[in-house]
Amino acid sequence: MAQLNTIKTVLKATVLLLTLFFSVSCQEALQLLKQVNVQEPKASVENVKLTDLSLSKADLLFDIAVENPNPLGVHLSGMDYNFLINGASFIKGQKEDKLDIKANGKANISIPLSLTYSEIHKAVKSFADLDTVPYQLKLKIGVNLPVLGDIKIPVTKSGSFPNLRLPEISLKKIKLDKIGFSCADLKLMLDIKNPNAVSFVTRNLNYDLEVNGKNWIKGKIDKALKINKKAKQTVSIPVTLNFLEMGGAVYQMLSGGSKLEYHLTGKSDFSSDFKLLKTFSLPFDKKGKIDLIK
């Protein structure tokens, strides 16, 4: 019986639509369409996935569903999309998917977007310090209905995605522990700062320090160091300087009270428990003046 009623509904719709096409005005067409319960399709963003994440960009995938509640098939004629950040358009485009949606059926479309942090921070400088970037996606989905032609279904989706920033490695201080006629014992204190809302582990920290144009130390720390979210880790590196090898000028430098000009270079590997974030290598290059702590 249910199947017979469906057939009758479709036949009735077909007859009415043919009548619309050949003999009635648009207003009359609307009234007749209501008689067969022709409804506007429904559209929504069913899911948003973060498909890739790095220190330079975030990739999002929007899954959109269009449902046809009518006893007749309709045609999906594409969509316009506008991705906004801070209320301003950031990415605009069109997707030309043309699909037939069966009677009482459903169609799914996906929109992939790749968002570069440097461009986001350039567009909205205040976002550089945020842990997440809020967004709004506005869609206009084109659907072709019998007789009435194309209509646009508006859809809006708001959300946010992680905003990652580079960890920072810098020289905190140089501390003189002991000085003799032939050598001096010092400690280099390196700061590793994590400005993100996810923790990191750093490994294979390579460093090379020049002071007043002279190479003081070059080495590597193999030990893994955890830097908690929104935290800073200080690494202490013991150094012994041999005056017989480096010359008397280094002794005079350490004995005096002037600031030291330094150049710190190197790189370190970083990993995270955030699944999408792959291990990356971060180089650093710092120059400046620093006091010798005695």
Key structural traits:
single chain; 294 residues; alpha+beta; Immunoglobulin-like; 2 domains; 5-stranded antiparallel beta sheet; rod-shaped
Any overview of this molecule?
The chain is α+β, with helices and mostly antiparallel strands and 294 residues long. It has two domains: 41-162, Immunoglobulin-like, CATH 2.60.40; 168-293, Sandwich (Immunoglobulin-like), CATH 2.60.40.1820. The protein has five helices and 17 strands. It has helices at 2-23, 26-35, 117-123, 243-246, 248-255; strands at residues 42-53, 57-67, 74-85, 88-95, 99-101, 106-116, 132-145, 149-162, 168-179, 183-194, 200-211, 214-221, 225-227, 231-242, 260-271, 280-290, 292-293. Strands 3, 4, 5, 7 and 8 form a five-stranded antiparallel β-sheet that branches. Strands 11, 12, 13, 15 and 16 form a five-stranded antiparallel β-sheet that branches. A four-stranded mixed β-sheet has the order 14-10-9-17. A hairpin with a 2-residue loop joins strand 11 (200-211) and strand 12. Helix 1 (2-23) packs antiparallel against helix 2. The N and C termini lie far apart (96 Å). Residues 1-24 have low confidence and may be disordered.
Q: How many structurally independent domains? A: 2
* CATH fold call of the largest domain: Immunoglobulin-like
Largest sheet entry: 5 strands, antiparallel
In round numbers, the mean pLDDT is 86
Sheet/helix structural class:
alpha+beta
Instruction: State the end-to-end CA separation.
Output: 96 Å
The percentage helix is 10-25%
CATH structural class of the largest domain = Mainly Beta
Q: Low-confidence spans: pLDDT under 50, at least 5 residues?
A: 1-24
Radius of gyration: 33 Å
Q: What's the helix count?
A: 5
CATH architecture of the largest domain: Sandwich
Beta strands, count: 17
